[in-house]
Design goal:
By secondary structure, this protein is an alpha/beta fold. Helices cover about 30% and strands about 25% of the residues. The strands form two sheets. Strands 3, 4, 5, 6, 7, 8 and 9 form a seven-stranded mixed beta sheet that branches. A two-stranded parallel sheet has the order 1-2. A hairpin with a 4-residue loop joins β3 and β4. α3 packs across α4. It is globular. The two termini are about 20 Å apart. The mean pLDDT is about 85.
Length: about 260
């Protein structure tokens, strides 16, 4: 789908599904935006200001919708709509014209609607960030997820941004950010006092990854044209399981693919 490596996307999705089946586990999907990475904010502003006639806008909108539908068809082989917790909106979405009277405002929301999220509660369609709490019948695990912003020139940039954000939040177990197209994960220590004991807890800082190819022998793709570094294609996953020997009652691990 455009510059997307469909092979890497399917490898990631199938690996997650197979892992869940192997362990008899539930699976929950979180999206960090820019599912169809078509236009920058400046591109979008130029398109909206172009004054194209309605028939031309319908043709362009139809082409964008076809790409979103193609991506949905690929993902639907592995992802069930009821397993999606949320798909937040990113920066590079295509904004549909309001006078075309479509049931969604942009291409990211179009994908969410294809999975049936528009028919569920509003939390399934967050704009740029959200918080979700997973309840394990006592132990809980809280994830803050967001699209993010800023440059994506280095892997360290996204993790450093999350490091600063995490310092201002209590009771968040994992911070997840998209936008940078980098796949990375580090642990950050949290200390608290419980009675007369010091309790140590690790939280996760995660940049969620990307499936956008950077270089091709047949075309000049965006990363090559902008002289960006090659991208390690893949996504991230958090594995959670009960462990009553842990102070929180849960153990967690982060996997990158």
């Amino acid at each position: 789908v455009g510059g997307c490596s469909v092979r890497h996307l399917e490898l990631f999705l199938s690996a997650m599904v197979d892992m869940a089946k192997l362990h008899g586990a539930d699976i929950a999907w979180l999206g960090t935006g820019d599912y169809v990475d078509l236009v920058s904010p400046s591109n979008r502003a130029g398109y909206l200001a172009s004054g194209l006639y309605r028939p031309a806008r319908r043709v362009i909108t139809g082409a964008v919708s076809d790409v979103v539908d193609e991506l949905h068809a690929i993902m639907a082989g592995y992802v069930r709509g009821r397993d999606i917790v949320s798909l937040c909106v990113g920066h590079h979405y295509f904004l549909f014209d309001p006078d075309l009277e479509l049931p969604y405002a942009n291409s990211d929301q179009h994908l969410a609607a294809n999975f049936g999220l528009a028919k569920r509660e509003a939390k399934g369609l967050t704009w740029g960030a959200g918080v979700v709490e997973f309840d394990f019948g006592g132990p809980k695990y809280t994830v803050m997820y967001e699209h993010g912003q800023g440059n994506g020139m280095s892997l360290a940039y996204g993790l450093a941004k999350l490091d600063r954000i995490a310092g201002g939040w209590e009771a968040i177990d994992a911070h997840v950010m998209g936008h940078t197209h980098k796949t990375g994960a580090v642990k950050k220590a949290r200390l608290s006092i419980r009675g007369d004991e010091i309790v140590h807890r690790d939280i996760r800082l995660i940049t969620s990854g990307s499936f956008l190819k950077g270089f091709s022998t047949t075309d000049v793709l965006y990363p090559e044209g902008k002289q960006l570094a090659p991208i390690a294609l893949g996504g991230s996953a958090i594995l959670l399981w009960k462990n009553h020997r842990e102070p929180t009652g849960l153990s967690s691990a982060t996997i990158e693919l």
